[in-house]
Amino acid sequence: MVATVRHFLRNSLMALPLLISPFALHADELMKWERIPLSVPLKVGQERVIFADKNVRVGFPPALNGKLRVQSTGGAVYLKADSAFPQTRLQLQDVETGEMILLDVTAGEQGPSEAGTYCV
User: Fold this and answer.
1) Is residue 79 within 8 Å of residue 70, measured between CB atoms?
2) pLDDT surpassing 70 at residue 41
3) Quick one: pLDDT band at residue 8, thresholds 50, 70, 90?
4) Which CATH number fits the domain 26-119, given the four candidates 2.60.40.1080, 2.60.120.280, 3.30.450.20, 3.40.50.620?
5) Which residue positions does the secretion signal occupy (predicted)?
6) Residue 3 has pLDDT above 60, yes or no
């Protein structure tokens, strides 16, 4: 009996970091980068957070200047559309390795009903 309880507690403690990680607590949608651009719909006026789990630079075309606010810090990318725009490609580049993740972002008045987060 004591061994069973000890085994249960040990396994529970091993799983604890997964339960309290910021990704598990905040990610509304998990997306896996498999060399296919990831679709990220935005609603005008709402912010979305994308957790990349690594420091990334964000590349976006000049056509989005004034339409999309982009901030990146500590592995999180914050996107807020100030006006509607058609599907546009963003590039997330790992600062250390140079690896790229591609996002196809679009914004409209009829986007997701809640501000949300993605874990890539």
Assistant:
1) yes
2) yes
3) very low
4) 2.60.40.1080
5) 1-26
6) no
